[in-house]
Design goal:
By secondary structure, the chain is of the alpha/beta class. It has nine helices and eight strands. It has helices spanning about 5-20, 30-40, 50, 70-85, 100-110, 125-135, 145-150, 170-175, 180-185; strands at about 55-65, 85, 90-100, 115-120, 140-145, 155-160, 165-170, 190.
């Protein structure tokens, strides 16, 4: 290899290594209809569900501002939830907002009587703040991206060997006053 060609290749390699990289987009770790099915089936097992949910089950879908993937995930989850239509005998209501801050999220949950917050893709850096905002609220946080559960969402779903698998952050569930029986916990990966 000539000296000129070697210098060119080394320069190209250095430029590639130093170039800013676009963050890899996070994608939902399970199909949206599977996520919706699991969350609507598991919700009534929360021991506080009958007291908190009177007329309808209210979902709040969080998205990252100006993130098309995040908005698309929330839109697909909205459709999946509305296709199911009910949690036991209570109709499902779905709203979506762009995440701005933990205090605004907490205020929105109180004002809108939210029961489940769906943390869409693109919010990895905000999961800790969301976790804090939902402490002691009785609101279930549900992650589109299963690794968010280890970061502080209560519930997530992924697919392993072609089968859906739940993950539950038990400490965060307790912090958010979500109380699942042992029969549900046995079915999940626990963090």
């Amino acid at each position: 290899m000539t000296l000129c060609r070697r210098a060119f290749l080394l320069g190209l390699l250095a430029a590639t290594a130093l170039a800013p990289r676009r963050a890899r987009a996070e994608t939902a770790t399970a199909p949206f209809d599977v996520q919706a099915e699991i969350v609507t089936r598991i919700l009534p097992y929360d021991r506080g569900f009958p007291e908190r949910v009177k007329a309808q089950v209210s979902f709040l879908l969080l998205t990252r501002a100006r993130d098309a993937d995040s908005a698309s995930a929330a839109h697909q989850m909205r459709r999946a939830l509305l296709d199911i239509g009910k949690v036991r005998d209570r109709p499902i209501r779905v709203e979506a907002i762009e995440y701005s801050s933990a205090p605004e999220l907490a205020a929105a949950c109180r004002a809108r009587d939210i029961h489940v917050v769906y943390i869409s893709s693109g919010l990895a850096k905000d999961v800790a703040a969301i976790r804090g905002a939902l402490a002691d609220t009785g609101v279930l946080s549900f992650a589109a991206v299963e690794p968010y559960v280890a970061q502080g969402a209560v519930l997530g779903v992924d697919v392993a060997n072609g089968k859906p698998r739940m993950s539950i952050n038990l400490a965060q569930a307790r912090a958010q006053r979500i109380d699942f029986p042992a029969s549900i916990l046995k079915l999940a990966r626990i963090y």
